[in-house]
Amino acid sequence: MPLPLDAVRAIDREVAPRVAVLVPCHNEAPTVAAVVADFRRALPSATVYVYDNRSTDDTARVAAAAGAVVRKEPWAGKGNVVRRMFADVDADVYLLVDGDGTYAPGAAQGMIDLLLRDELDMVVAARRSVFLDAHRRGHAFGNRLFNGLYKAVFGPEFRDIFSGYRAFSRRFVKSFPAMSRGFEIETEMSVHASQLRLPVAEIEAEYGARPAGSTSKLNTFRDAFRISRMMLLLYKDIRPARFFGYVATVLAGAAVGLGLPLVETFLETGLVPRFPTAILVTGLLVLSGIAVTCGLILDSVARGRLEQKRLAYLALGTRRAD
Question: Pfam families recorded for this chain (predicted)?
Answer without folding.
Answer: Glycos_transf_2 (PF00535)
